[in-house]
RGAP1 protein
Amino acid sequence: VIRPEPCSVCGSRIRFGKTAIKCCQCQLLLHTKCREQCPSLCTPRPHHHSWPREGVLADFAPSVPPLVPTLVVQCVTEVETRGLTETGLYRVPGAEQLVREWKRKLLRAGGVLPALSSVADIHVVCGVLKDFLRGLKEPLVTFSLHPAFLRAADIPDEAASDTALRHVVSKLPPANRDTLAFLMLHLLRVSHSPDCKMDVLNLSRVFGPTLVGHSSANPTPLAIMEDTPRQCKVVARLLSLPPSFWRGFVGTEQENLVPM
């Protein structure tokens, strides 16, 4: 080390003259002793040093598939590593101030994120993920496709509803589609954990407003009232689709993104 820099894993400064490890692809820098704690996923450094404070999902996505933002991958990985025994995962709120601080820290870091293992409360990590998704300029279910998702979920016949949902999911922008698929697979794992006590109905109530939202950035009070139950219905129907459908979008890379 010529110029002292902080370790990307533990955060403490690596002093002048010390030996360090640096990734040639993403430029991640860390102490040799911190190698075992290094995040396994490696993403190329973005052209800008940090992500924008707000934007559409594609602004945060990597340049190579699957197009899932590193922030989403890291939060999900942390939750699946140590959170699947927590009751009320995603329903129990994390400390609001810590959620804001960590979201700001991750956005400022850009593609090379500090490790989330130092966040003691896993509900804070869940809060960061939800807050990031809520803060997008438009939800994962885009404004233009919002009515189509609602119509598909409203179809009484389950087989016809599934077919319509598969069709409209495939029309999403690639980053939105891949991230939605990645999140659906994650939420299915959460729903299957008996300790979490978060079944599909509970998860759809939590993620309906976050993932589906409304058909515009400034919905009327009437639209908000009418959309809320339908948002939950859309997420519940999406979670009823088989995992194999979602894996078709994230491909075999899914196994490398999060622990099985």
About this structure: Residues 184 and 239 are 6 Å apart (CA to CA).
